[in-house]
Amino acid sequence: xxxxxxxxxxxxxxxxxxxxxxxxxxxxxxxxxxxxxxxxxxxxxxxxxxxxxxxxxxxxxxxxxxxxxxxxxxxxxxxxxxxxxxxxxxxxxxxxxxxxxxxxxxxxxxxxxxxxxxxxxxxxxxxxxxxxxxxxxxxxxxxxxxxxxxxxxxxxxxxxxxxxxxxxxxxxxxxxxxxxxxxxxxxxxxxxxxxxxxxxxxxxxxxxxxxxxxxxxxxxxxxxxxxxxxxxxxxxxxxxxxxxxxxxxxxxxxxxxxxxxxxxxxxxxxxxxxxxx
Length: 277
What we know:
Blueprint: E1 4-6, H1 14-23, E2 28-32, E3 42-45, H2 54-58, E4 63-66, H3 75-88, E5 92-96, H4 108-117, E6 123-128, H5 140-144, E7 147-150, E8 156-157, H6 162-174, E9 181-185, E10 191-192, H7 193-204, E11 209-212, H8 215-224, H9 229-237, H10 240-243, H11 253-258, H12 265-271, H13 273-276
Parallel strand pairs: 1-2, 1-4, 2-3, 4-5, 5-6, 6-9, 7-11
Antiparallel strand pairs: 8-10
Helix pairs in contact: 1-6, 3-4, 7-12, 8-9
């Protein structure tokens, strides 16, 4: 029986992906630290750092959605063994990478991509831009205080709704016509954080402003609220491409993969008003 393994199944992308695959009639194994079932999806315990959990996760599956959950920084060390485990079992991999990593083969996420490309199994690489959903997750505490403070300067990003990442992944997992290709996933338009804050402010009917802060201050702020130092440094570092303008590009990959245009930032805000309030 064909079955799809979804890593990070309880996360921002994993949850809607599991739902969409089930709606397509797929058999799904939802992998997470807890191993809890998700609706009709079978639950299975998975720990990136414990290879003894790999066998039960990959048992009976022919396709897998591979991504690294938030909070980890050992990207290559944790993901390449997962790619190797999939390849050893001849499992197709749809891999959630990161926009822009193909610019430099020394970037850890790019090294994982290369390992996958050379693995001998069918693959699809998805490289999403910054998530629209970060506004009601990572930046929600700031919005509550009326300030989004990040080290983005005036850089723009074509924010992508996680539902579009999930739909793109579901499409890639459900057909072979996208195999052995990489796709840059973006929203339909790029906005600065100041522009995004203004949109959120208007929708909520309360002041929300953007404050451009320095990297050091941002990193210290994260650590002050309990973010581990190595992950705080990682989160700080990934704003460099934003400041350089490298996250402002727009692609039609969501349309190509799903047959539907990517959701706008306005649509995300409208659909998540309760989460943002």
